[in-house]
Give the backbone structure.
Amino acid sequence: MGSLKALEVEFPSVVMELLHLRIKEENVANPIFEYSITDTEKKICRKGKFNGFEVQLRVAHLNSGKYFFNLNITNGQSVVYTFEKRQRIGNDMVEFLAS
């Protein structure tokens, strides 16, 4: 598996309906990653796993606010990304479709 320092991840700082994550390191032997999303009170809002280097998660059910995405890389190693969840407002469908 690639080293933790070499792992490059595209992760958004603001999301509305969908969270799109892309792992750029493709030299990972077994690309199955576990994740969890927690709020500012450390309450788990969602957790799961995905296979491959890209995933799109629907987060429309989350309230607006700050969240933490914990991505488990290897045995016991993880990286935490912070993002802000915003509600989609009325006529911003073009922005939604572009995300």
